[in-house]
Design goal:
heterodimer; A: 323 residues; alpha+beta; Butyryl-CoA Dehydrogenase, subunit A, domain 3; 11 helices; globular; B: 379 residues; Butyryl-Coa Dehydrogenase, subunit A, domain 1; Butyryl-CoA Dehydrogenase, subunit A, domain 2; four-stranded mixed sheet; four-stranded antiparallel sheet
């Protein structure tokens, strides 16, 4: 038993962290909210670093890494609230592609729904769409589908309902177990993003509570504020190892991986939801203001907590396995 | 990363499991009564004779030199087999790490083997009537007796767990009343049969005589029973609080076993179980697993040379509140049967309620997390 990442894995994580700090600051997330065609430079840079092709075997031009490597990187994309379908592209679809082509280097973007749905995030910029239907995943190009935009509470997500045009014959990307495995990767990757989002909201709030003064002292010196943030820190502390462990189980093909993914997604969803609530409360009216950055992270946490199975759904799945 | 157990870890687990399954007693009464305590000592001595009492200690002191990971495996197997809470815990888990770190060789040789063999039974003398959460407010004093080569102790310790049944006490006493209050304390080791010591047991919430007042009236303690340096007691003691809050006192195996018993209870209630409680049972299981994997992560860090610090407060809040929830869920499953429950859930529930209080209340732990993990300003 050795539960630690390698120096290489951590170095890759640090490189992605540095990249996102530069290419995806809150102003970039806000631009994704405000402007239809704003698209930052982060996606191409992630493609160049190999993040998007991390799970693609080397024989097909990818890095040939596993979920253990990828969750660390996805956690950072959550921390940055990266407004891109990185879980859908890198964790769910890319490993299924026979000829990944542009999916490897960031010149192409693929999105996918949250399993058995047809609404997909970041549809405005997607070149291809993974359609989950009847136990298969089919891949469609922009010309193969019609898009009906819908508004997300998180405007950066650019949701659209994706419907294949009548009569088009779509290639099948996966069937059976491969579809189930793709779902597990999506749920695990999203859990990692939720841990990252929770860490970010906690960091922002700690910083704010140290600076914001009321009654002549920093509000972070008040016990009521301290205890809210301590609870958030505890929730993150105990969600994170389950996410890493689920990634390990997926990487090694553990038959109990779905159980492990569900435990991870349940705790990660709860940790992000709790942290968001405490972050907003401790920011007070300042954080409740639309012009403050907090809501960019808060709303992402809400939607991802519900995506790929919410905490209740995953606990029900754990219940079926253990009770 | 390799989340499988090594061949030697698996062999160690098999060896623990085989011995524990054959030897763990299942009918012991509470160890917090005088009669019960005696029976628990028999079990402790059996553990010692088979060298399972202190597996992580060096062999020369009665241990097996087990790695931290093996120790966790032992704990998982111990509670999986239904082993009782260890009445020796305050010695072997709280004092011993401090003796290993701060004790002289003479102290290690004199204290540890007798502790391992359950010949000397140690209780913790920290809390006082006016120093609970505010531990640095300790008033019990030790005055220098240069001629006799030692110290004279007076004052009162209280809420001392199993104090009425133990033979020795480790405690903090004020040796420099002029110094800043954290700097004037010294860590003493005191035999409870020393002249001037009076012990009065009293009942805890469940009525068992698990608590004691310990009164000191001019009790002489020689210099060789000072642990660490004079006036450095706070620093020495904090080393044990980290152990107490952290994984040594309440390892994950205990909560995995409790969650497993909760699952059995849920199943045994069958159609009578309120379906809304299903989710609570699942939460208990997931949280116990989360504690287990967080501990594996932490132990890997420790083994790689990192020190456990204030993070142990995160753990203490988590396990203590998990324990209460597990028992609350069990009582809810039992419904009105809980009132007459003899299966241990009601008793366990009462004990679980002490978790958020002892070893530093969870309010104090949350302050520690906020100030020393998150870096928020002190009040």
């Amino acid at each position: 038993m050795h539960f630690a990442f390698t120096d290489d894995q951590l170095a890759f994580r640090d490189a992605v962290r540095d990249l996102l700090a530069k290419e995806c600051p809150p102003t970039a997330v806000r631009e994704a909210w405000d402007s239809e065609d704003a698209r930052g430079t982060a996606w191409a840079a992630l493609g160049e670093m190999g993040v998007l092709s991390a799970l693609v075997p080397e024989s097909r031009g990818g890095l040939g890494l596993g979920m253990v490597d990828l969750v660390l990187l996805l956690e950072e994309t959550g921390y940055a609230a990266l407004p891109e379908p990185v879980v859908e592209h890198a964790a769910v679809v890319a490993p299924l592609l026979d000829e990944p082509g542009g999916a490897l280097d960031g010149s192409e973007t693929i999105t996918a729904p949250f399993h058995h749905d047809t609404v997909m995030p970041y549809s405005d910029r997607a070149d291809r769409f993974a359609l989950f239907d009847d136990g298969t995943i089919q891949l469609a190009g922009r010309d193969d589908v019609t898009l009906e935009a819908c508004t997300s509470v998180d405007h950066a997500r650019r949701l659209a309902r994706v419907t294949p045009r009548a009569g088009v014959d779509l290639p099948t990307l996966a069937t059976g177990n491969a579809v189930a495995a793709a779902f597990e990767r999506g749920a695990c990757g999203t859990a990692a993003q939720l841990v990252g989002l929770a860490r970010r909201m906690l960091d922002m709030t700690v910083e704010y509570a140290r600076e914001r003064r009321q009654f002549g002292v920093p509000i972070g010196s008040f016990q009521a504020v301290k205890h809210h943030l301590a609870d958030a820190r505890i929730a993150i502390e105990f969600a994170r190892p389950l996410v890493y462990r689920a990634a390990w189980s997926l990487t090694t093909g553990d038959p109990e991986a779905p159980l492990h993914v569900s435990m991870a997604k349940a705790l990660a969803s709860d940790a992000a939801t709790l942290t968001g609530r405490q972050a907003l409360q401790c920011h007070g009216a300042v954080g409740y203001s639309f012009e403050h950055d907090l809501h960019l992270f808060l709303k992402r946490a809400w939607v991802l907590a519900a995506a790929w199975g919410d905490a209740d759904w995953h606990r029900a799945r754990v219940g079926r396995a253990i009770l | 990363m390799d989340l499988t157990f090594t061949e030697s870890e698996r062999r160690f687990r098999d060896e623990c499991r085989a011995w524990l399954e054959a030897n763990v007693p299942h009918d012991l009464p509470s160890g917090d009564t005088r009669e019960g305590f005696e029976l628990h000592l028999e079990w402790e001595r059996k553990l010692y004779e088979a060298r399972w009492a202190v597996v992580s200690w060096p062999e020369e002191y009665g241990g097996r030199n087990a790695t931290p990971m093996e120790w966790l495996i032992f704990e998982e197997e111990y509670y999986r087999a239904g082993g009782p809470q260890r009445v020796t815990q305050n010695g072997i888990f709280l004092l011993a790490p401090t003796v290993f770190e701060f004790g002289t060789e003479e102290q290690r040789n004199r204290i540890l083997p007798r502790m391992a063999a359950a010949q000397d039974l140690w209780c913790q003398g920290w809390s006082e009537p006016n120093a609970g959460s505010d531990l640095a407010g300790i008033q019990a004093r030790a005055v220098r007796d240069e001629q006799a080569g030692g110290w004279r102790l007076s004052g009162q310790k209280t809420w001392t767990t199993r104090g009425a049944f133990c033979t020795h006490l480790f405690g903090l006493f004020r040796t420099d009343p002029e110094a800043e209050r954290h700097r004037g304390l010294t860590y003493f080791l005191v035999p409870l049969d020393a002249p001037g010591v009076t012990v009065r047991g009293f009942g805890r919430l469940d009525g068992d005589e698990g608590f004691a007042d310990v009164f000191f009236d001019d009790v002489f303690v020689p210099d060789h029973d000072v642990l660490g340096e004079v006036n450095q007691g706070w620093r020495v003691a904090m080393a044990t609080t980290s152990a107490e809050r952290g994984l040594t006192l309440r390892s994950p195996g205990r909560f995995m076993a409790a969650a497993s018993r909760l699952i059995d209870l849920y199943r045994s209630r069958g159609a009578d179980a309120d379906p809304r409680l299903r989710d609570e049972v699942v939460r208990a299981y997931i949280d116990a697993e989360a504690y287990r994997w967080q501990t594996f992560l932490t132990v890997t860090r420790m083994t790689s040379g990192e020190q456990l610090g204030a993070e142990s407060s995160l753990t203490k809040v988590f396990w203590s509140e998990l324990d209460v929830r597990i028992h609350e869920t069990a009582l809810a499953l039992l419904g009105t049967d809980a009132e007459r429950d003899e299966s241990g859930w009601m008793k366990g529930f009462q004990f679980s309620l002490s978790g958020p209080i002892y070893a530093g209340t969870n309010e104090i732990q949350r302050n520690v997390i906020a100030e020393r993990v998150l870096g928020l300003p002190r009040a």
